[in-house]
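User: Run a structure prediction on this.
Assistant: Running it now.
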Amino acid sequence: MEQYQYLTFTARLKRISDSLLYGAKDLYKTLNLEIEPNWHLVFLLFKEKNTLTITEIAENIKISQPGVIKIVNKMKAKDYLKAETDKRDHRIQLLKLTTKAKKELPKLDKVWFAGEKTIKELLDNNTDIFDQLDKIENAIAESNYKDRTLIHLKNG
């Protein structure tokens, strides 16, 4: 398969991502934590800022607003987030951590710190991959996979 390394790139990224994601889900289940792996970045944002909107979360963690809405709704259902209506603009929800979430944060921080150590260990403390990921994300933002591939098909 080595001769196909570029063709297997997305499959390998997906396999690694799935392994880490399902490993985190299994860890949370083992530790009796009722959170999901994609909530981590949302919690980190709330550690920096007391109140956030859907738009602010989406911009900071770079996922779509519908994706953020799904996460926020699940976090609200588990009583980790609460929403208030903005007095100036009733269309905007002002989100805050609940008392339950604030109480759980020290325990969650310990888990995430241990997880960070695991990632550092897996990467052998080499941060070069983050530069490469930045380059890939920036290149895709300029022109996506489909558009690039269509140009290559056209040009032969």
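The chain has two domains: 36-123, 126-156.
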